[in-house]
What does this fold into?
Amino acid sequence: MTMTVHVDIVSAEKEIFSGLAEMVFAPAELGEVGISPRHAPLITRLNAGEVRVKVTDKESYPFFISGGILEVQPHLVTILADTAIRAKDIDEAAALEAKARAEEALLDQSGKIDYESAHAELIQAIMKLRTLDRLRKRGE
Amino acid sequence: MAVGKEIRTKISSIKNTQKITRAMEMVAASKMRKTKDRMQATRPYAKKIGQIIKHLAHANPEYKHPFLVQRDVKRVGLIVISSDRGLCGGLNSNLFRKTLLQLMQWDKENIEVDVCTMGTKAVGFFSNLRKVNLTGQVCKLGDTPHLSDIVGIIKIMLDAYQKNKIDELYVVSNEFVNTMTQKPTVEKLLPILAGEIENGLSSGHWDYIYEPDAKEMLEHLLTRYIESIVYQGLVENNACEQAARMVAMKSASDNAGNLIKELQLIYNKARQAAITQEISEIVAGAAAV
It folds into this structure.
């Protein structure tokens, strides 16, 4: 039997995923990490991007998170997401629109806009779209 | 008929009051359902982050964050979470009584207190107390409080803690036991001390791998943790407020019903007495003729 690790993903609003998995992939601040069972204890911040929980070879669950914290214990992986949605539930049209809006806001140099928040919004939208792209490539 | 005019106006005024209390009861009931859902929705996150913090307290980091270190207590910080509006039974007064008891105890031990308040009721109460040093307040958070509304007040307290101005931080709020019961509780937020080890946690001497950097990471995580506890307290207090209001308004409506019944009885008796008297007067008059 393959080894599994317990994975909990919660966002500020609700619990998204809880169960056993063979491996978890997450967009850590210093690059994407893959966590196997019995990984050494680790704490890191997460960027916006895709979190993938591989339950078996055939079955895996992709999620989109907008940033958060990852904690790893040998038999327990916890992801505290700021917001999390199942990748399937990403609204592509809304993401595209948000991207366009953010780009427009960034181009507007009149100094009226909040550069930081526009930038963050743009990254969010791009990461959402990228998550969707990957989902399609895997043929799901 | 002139009899019982006063009683009749009184009955109708009580009936009007009853209409108001009944409406408030129903509004509170529907709001309670919503706030209760919100409270339950934020629970998993608060629980998980609490778990992580517990693990963290067991780790042996080379960098000791001030939030995890016990100091001598000379001054404490207190965050009081109350409701914005009244008419919710003894909810706030119970909370303040509990707070006062705690304040008296600190006073005995010569510990000074800084207070931050949330909600109009707490502001009103604590600005009348002379011994208390108010350092911050937020009011009118409404039924759907946002984390961003309370971040400022938490920052005041955390900064004070980091600068050694306060040595412990507490939060006072109502705990939602069930619809009928709300319990005022005092909870210690800082410093965070190691509790019991639970299953699945590596025992012995170990530490996390921190990415990118222990100090930054801990700072971020601990601040998040405090924020999530206070936010949870606020959301829970909101649910308590609605539940307490619902119960208070229900008993007010019931009381009004009883009052009306009694007054109606008195009115009927008075009316009957008047009629009887009139008849006997007529009969007596007829007999005299």
